[in-house]
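Notes to self, AraC family transcriptional regulator:
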Amino acid sequence: MARYDPDNHAVFSLDRQIAGLGLLTAAFGTLVFAPHVHEEMVIAVTQAGAGRCVTRGTASVGTPQTVMVFNPGEPHQGGVTGDAPWCYRSFYLGPGLLTTLGDETFGRRITLPWFREAVVNDPDLARSMLAAHRAIDGGAGRLMRETLLLEALALLFRRHGAPAPRLPVPGREGRPVQRVAAALRDDPAADWSVATLAALAGMSPFHFCRAFRKETGLAPHAFLTQARLDLARRHLAAGMAPAEVAAATGFCDQSHLTRQFKRCYGITPGLWAAAVAGARSANTEAR
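result:
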């Protein structure tokens, strides 16, 4: 049995919906990695502290403003640097998943880019990667998880890959986007995937995400959340209990509904329902 190490903690999991994706969340105070390789592409984003890596004979330091990228099969080593613990999140992208994501991002089979630098200084990319990791690791909805991962990887490939693949340029996609928007409004409780919506629009998944945001002003998952909240308000106004509303509108549970409702409207579903009931009662008494 492995001994408990109070200075070094890590949690690793394989995602149940995105095949070939591993997720690591770590807080290391003293750990030093021996030289090793991965068959996956590994992408690490520092949340606090700093970590040092050595690859191809060059030493680099990862901080919260940077992203570490290790190509498949590339030897590297490293560990904590400085006095503070190194807290970071990592993606492990298997070979099959990399090919699939490349196809979905660029709409065609591409030569997967190689990354010349193990550490890239790109705060926007770091924020995008962290948002995707937190969404996936935290059990966010399928559409949000897939959208954020595609957007983060497209940013990484385009800015720092060699060669940098060209992204398809959004054009006039108003009609197919509105077709998808109507489908989301008609069935907001469904567990929509990016692939399903992209097929409905007749686009590659990433091209669809970009076109949808351009046409509606919202990412697909944000639009779906709004459609669910619109339906939730109708159910609440009809007197349905918040727990039943959550189940009927695609939210995980009542607390998930409450968080999203308050995030958008500043009040809880219960307060909104009470206000609607109070106004209805006042109107009835006035007649």
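- The radius of gyration is 22 Å.
- Residues 142-160 form the longest helix (19 residues).
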